[in-house]
Design goal:
Rossmann fold; 7 strands; seven-stranded mixed sheet; binds zinc ion; alpha/beta
Length: about 210
C-alpha cells in the first residue's frame, strides 16, 4: 500500500480526523495526495481575508513535508458542495486514473455535515472497486461512529497533529474546543485505550482490499 489519498471537505477536516495518521504515513515514506474541497471563506470571521483557510492548509501541508503537487485546494462554496456533486465526482474519477490510490481516507457516511456527506458519498462512488476506503472520526458530526479500524500513533505523531492544528489560527479565534491540545490528546487516549496502546486514531471501514 503506497499511494494514499486523503479527502477533506473543508481545509481542516483531514487534520482533525486523521492528522496523526497522516504524520505516521509520511514518516513511513508513503506517497500522499491530499485534497481539500472548500476553503470555507464565507464562514470565516469578517475581519479575516477570504483565502485565510487555504493559506493555513498550505502551511500545514508544507510543515509535514508535502510538495506542491501533493496537495490540492479547490474552492467549492461551503455548505453548497451538493450543488457541485457531479463535478466533484468527475474530479475524483480523474484522480483515480492519474494517482491510482491504494487507500482512500475521507469523511464517514455517518457524518451529518451536508458537505461531508457529499464528499463521503462521492468517495465511495469513485473508489469502491479500486481501493481500500476508510473514514475518519469527527465526533461532533456523528450520531454513530463504528470504531472498526485503528492506527496506533507515536508520541511524535500526536505532537505533529497538535502542531498541524495550531496553524489554524482562524479556527482558534472561533473558539472551537476540538482544536485544543486537550481534546486532541483526549480522543487519542480514548482510541488508544480501545486497542491497549497509548494513542490511536479510529476509522470506519467502507472497503478493505488486502494487497
Ligand atoms: Zn468540514
Amino acid at each position: 500500500m503506497n499511494n494514499i489519498l486523503i479527502l477533506s471537505p473543508h481545509t481542516d477536516d483531514g487534520e482533525l480526523g486523521c492528522g496523526g495518521t497522516i504524520a505516521k504515513l509520511i514518516r513511513e515514506g508513503k506517497n500522499i495526495l491530499w485534497i481539500a474541497f472548500s476553503t470555507a471563506s464565507e464562514s470565516l470571521p469578517p475581519n479575516l481575508p477570504p483565502d485565510t483557510l487555504g493559506k493555513e492548509f498550505s502551511n500545514v501541508a508544507k510543515y509535514i513535508g508535502l510538495k506542491e503537487n501533493q496537495f490540492i485546494t479547490y474552492d467549492y462554496k461551503v455548505r453548497k458542495l451538493a450543488e457541485s456533486r457531479q463535478e466533484i465526482l468527475e474530479e475524483l474519477v480523474k484522480i483515480k486514473k492519474d494517482f491510482k490510490p491504494d487507500l482512500v481516507i475521507g469523511p464517514s457516511l455517518n457524518d451529518y455535515h451536508q458537505d461531508h456527506q457529499v464528499i463521503s458519498s462521492e468517495m465511495v462512488r469513485a473508489f469502491k472497486t479500486s481501493a481500500s476506503i476508510i473514514c475518519y472520526e469527527l465526533p461532533w458530526n456523528h450520531i454513530e461512529f463504528k470504531t472498526q479500524f485503528f492506527v496506533e500513533l507515536s508520541e511524535e505523531d500526536l505532537e505533529k497533529k497538535k502542531k498541524m492544528l495550531s496553524f489554524y489560527k482562524s479556527q482558534q479565534i472561533a473558539n472551537r474546543h476540538y482544536f485544543t491540545d486537550d481534546f486532541v490528546k483526549g480522543i487519542a487516549c480514548t482510541r488508544g485505550t480501545q486497542i491497549n496502546t497509548k494513542y490511536a486514531e479510529a476509522f470506519e471501514v467502507i472497503r478493505w482490499r488486502m494487497l
